User: Fold this.
Amino acid sequence: MKRICSLAESLLAAHWKLGDEMDKKDLRIHEVARAETLSSQCYTDKEFFEKEQKLIFENHWQYVGPASFLQKSGDQFPLSIAGQPILLVLDGDEIRAFYNVCKHRGGPLATCKKNNKVLKCEYHGWVYRLDGSLRGVPHFRHAELFNPSDFGLTEIAVTIWQGLIFVNLSADPDSGQDVFQTIEDRIKPLKIADLQFHKRVSYNIACNWKAYADNYLEGYHIPHVHPELCDLLSFQDYKTELTDHYSLQYSPFRDKENLYSQDGGAAFYFFLFPNIMLNLLPGRLQMNSIEALSEQSCRVHFDYFYDDITSQQAQKKITEDMAYSDRVQKEDMEICEWVQKGLQSNAYERGRFSPEMEEAVHHFQVMLKKVYKKIPFNS
Ligand code: FES
Ligand SMILES: [Fe+2]
Assistant:
């Protein structure tokens, strides 16, 4: 009888539509042992995705790349955050970020990486200083009531932590320093700033960004999706730590020589809400970020950093490390794309968590629910 009731409830819930007020039951927060996973609509609905872009990605620090992306004053680097066109600029020795949007008629200041003493719009040639103020406006002598100081570029917040660039689109961002400090304390004596950037590799995946994050946040799938990882990591000793600032999955290496370790050591997998991952192994950092492209697609960037990128021995190790990560990533991509099809199917509405193995997924979904509570679905 209970089973029939819960099936009926599921079918009713499947009729929940955006535009109606989001069912408060969907956003109730329970302990992992009794919590349900997020509703499948959170992974498949276009309108929901658009609200997430505003509330989640425009309100949290976003990792954009290593400071070494910008080397000389005047370097300009266009990118996209939460679907918004952004431009990183090196102004003297200060990294700035602006919307990559000219105040004349919305043209781009840079469509590819370049260097120039000024920021020059690629549409009609308005010229801005590297600090974003408007300097020159061709053919505007006869314009009336036009004050160039009203037409500076819109600047956004930037912070540099351990040689990594983060931007925040919010008008009133927090400093982000609390999060960074707790990570620094947790990984001591390791220092991210001691590592050098090697390469970025990006992958397009046909799944909602949260399906990729959920998958990252648990080791439950490792024996099934990545059996080869079980040889490397001590799966029984896999631990999860949850804090207000991050979740951390932690696993010692098996006691044998391998690509990453000759004398033990550990792998740290930090997840910073909503979409940043720091994968730290001895002598190497892989900084991953998920770019949400649509309700059913995302792009994941892998930035590789190493303590040595020049010696012959290091280069051999880097090649092996990147090939290994690529294999694991392709296994994750394949399963995430299958999961997206499952979430979109008639057969799935919501599931449950393993209290032993999916605490970090639950932690992530609780943080999401706290943000979703702010979504004005009736507006
Ligand atoms: S849109 Fe930039 S100069 Fe016209
Ligand atoms: Fe995986």
